[in-house]
Amino acid sequence: MVYVGLDVSGKSLVVYAVNERKQRVFAGEQPASRAGLRALLRQVGLGAKLVAFKAGNQMKWIAETLQTLPEVQVHVGHPNEVKWITESRGKTDRVDAKKLAELARAGMLPRAVHVVEGPVRELRELVSARQQLQSKRIALINTIRGDVYQEGYRLPEKFFAGTTWQAKLARLPVSAPLKLIMQTFMASIEALSAAERQLTARLEAIEDPRCPLLESIPAIGPLSARVLVSALDEAQRFEDSKAVANYGALAPTIYQSGAVRP
To answer: How many CB atoms within 10 Å of residue 90?
Structure first.
């Protein structure tokens, strides 16, 4: 077995490989691409390999590429548990790759990220994109609330939940600059809402045998069921139900400040 540490940056891939006797068998660098990754693994040589790298924004294509290569095992380390690498003295890409290779050889790699595939991967990507749209839409709504409040008007809590909020907003006797700002923001909010509805429709169209079971639980609908499936995927990877609750932020948490304990 050859143990391969892979450090990923925006433009390059750095590989450091050691054998069972901790001897270096290869060290090299290639552009960050599928072709570059395959070239690096070819240069490592034939035989079984364990490739370890840290989860990041290029994880998907790297994991998919590695999984197509013969005799390659993949370990994607959790980023929160490899901070000692990024915070160590004398940090370089090659040093990081070497440390990952040596950890792999010693059987001391940090906890692996659960890499999902197929429909669950699509669910995760759609859920993430939908959340981004929601956050941008809510940010615009909160900006309008703040601007209107600056001119002495307070909007009700559920003002934007109805279908007539745009007309009501247009009738507010605010300054001309704010009227223009609100008009442009309203157009953006409507565009974000339309995009969100499109992603929601695609989410709810994805079939998974676990969704009908989840939907049989009161208050769990088609969208919530798919969000849960995308997040949890394989229940067997959790130790118990408490671990699932903690992972999904479903367990109550104490937040105390002075005499305040909500």
So the answer is: 5
**Are 145 and 123 in a shared domain?**
yes
Pairwise CA distance, residues 79 & 55, whole Å:
6
Amino acid identity at 225: A
Question: Is residue 137 domain-shared with residue 89, that is, in the same domain?
Answer: no
User: For residues 238 and 255, what is the distance between their CA atoms, to the nearest angstrom?
Assistant: 25
- Per-residue burial over 66-76, b if 16 or more Cβ lie within 10 Å, else e, is beeeeebebbb
Of all helices (H) and strands (E), which one includes residue 44?
Answer: helix 34-44
Regarding predicted confidence, which is higher, 43 or 163? Answer: 43
Secondary element (H or E) of residue 11:
none
Digit-coded pLDDT (tens) for 181-209: 999 999 999 999 999 999 999 999 999 99
Q: What is the pLDDT of residues 215-233, one digit of tens each?
A: 999 999 999 999 999 988 8
133 and 72 assigned to the same domain: no
Domain that holds residue 165: 118-247
Residues in the chain: 262
> Are 81 and 173 found together in one domain?
no
Let me know: does 105 contact 21? Beta carbons within 8 Å. no
pLDDT attached to residue 9 = 87
Between 110 and 43, name the one with better pLDDT: 43
Pull the structure tokens for residue 102: 């040596």
Q: Is 54 in contact with 82 (CB distance < 8 Å)?
A: yes
Same domain, 123 and 199: yes
Nearest alpha carbon to residue 138 among 180, 222, 196:
196
Tokens of 110: 């940090």
